[in-house]
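Extended Data, panel c. Modelled sequence:
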Amino acid sequence: MNSVDRILDANLNRAREGLRVVEEWIRLDLENKPLQQRLKAIRHALIRAENKLPGKKLIASRDVKQDPGAAYSTAGEKRRRDPEELLRANLRRVQEAARVLEEVSKLKGGEAGKVFKKIRFQIYNLEYDIVHKMTSHRKLKRT
């Protein structure tokens, strides 16, 4: 089994999942179309970068039954205090996955690493904008 492919596969999954959680919250709670469109654009950029990698090999490297981290979770993962904590946890998950993808994809050559780096910095900026928007949104709901 190829460890590089396995790491790429796991982190592509992690990044897509985190982006989808945030995108759905932004779309259906905040109802903020500009932020939702930015998230969607980032998710599609991730998919385009993924398509530059050998997809069938990545999936073939997947072995959920033997993954020592599959059953592991922390207390913080089992509950979230509020929507902001939920979104920040998922944005951080995407940032971390993008960093792993950026570094490990270098072992495959090509341009994917540059795309993953760009995505990581887009998420840093987006995190700031989302937290700011959520703070404003909460203030509006209270009045």
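DSSP finds six helices and no strands in the chain. This feature is highlighted in the accompanying rendering.
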